[in-house]
Specification:
Length: about 160
């Protein structure tokens, strides 16, 4: 037989067994026996909880699922157990902004904001007002770019490695 005919025969066997019933596992379970859950005590409620994990039996009876009876999907709804929750540390304080930087930001946004507000409210705009608003925008932008600084930090030493 050629390798191609062997493959064809194997393929025919796979197709023929497609509709055949699957092999039965132990006790009809699709998982190993060691993964079965056993009740913690001989109490009938524990067995009922294992059989009805979402509390559908209690909902069918007209009552809400009881806490601790398997029907409570959110056992920590009251927030009693804070040990399992991550509480981040308080954020560090914001850095102090110099007066020159504050004025530059005010000029950068203040000039166009004034022009927009004046146009919407139809305020009369003289030539010097337009010039001041545009000059404030350009001056604020230039001041922020100049203050930005692109060099390495002063305390980086002689070998600061790659600077991105």
């Amino acid at each position: 037989m050629t390798p191609q005919s062997d493959e064809d025969e194997i393929w025919r066997q796979i197709v023929a067994s497609f509709h055949a019933p699957a092999e039965e596992t132990s006790a009809g379970q699709p998982w190993p026996d060691r993964e079965n859950i056993t009740p913690r005590s001989g109490d009938q409620r524990d067995r009922d909880d294992l059989a009805d994990p979402l509390g559908e039996r209690a909902l069918a009876d007209g009552g809400p699922p009881a806490a601790g009876r398997g029907g409570d999907l959110h056992p920590d709804a009251d927030g009693d157990d804070d040990d399992d929750h991550y509480v981040p540390p308080p954020p560090p304080p914001l850095p102090k902004v110099e007066l020159g930087t504050k004025i530059a930001w005010l000029a950068l946004f203040g000039g166009p904001a004034y022009l927009l507000l004046a146009a919407l409210l139809r305020w009369p705009m003289d030539g010097w007002i337009l010039f001041a608003a545009v000059a404030a925008f350009i001056g604020g932008f230039v001041a922020l770019v100049v203050r930005m600084g692109d060099g390495p930090p002063k305390d980086s030493g002689w070998d600061d490695g790659a600077v991105v």
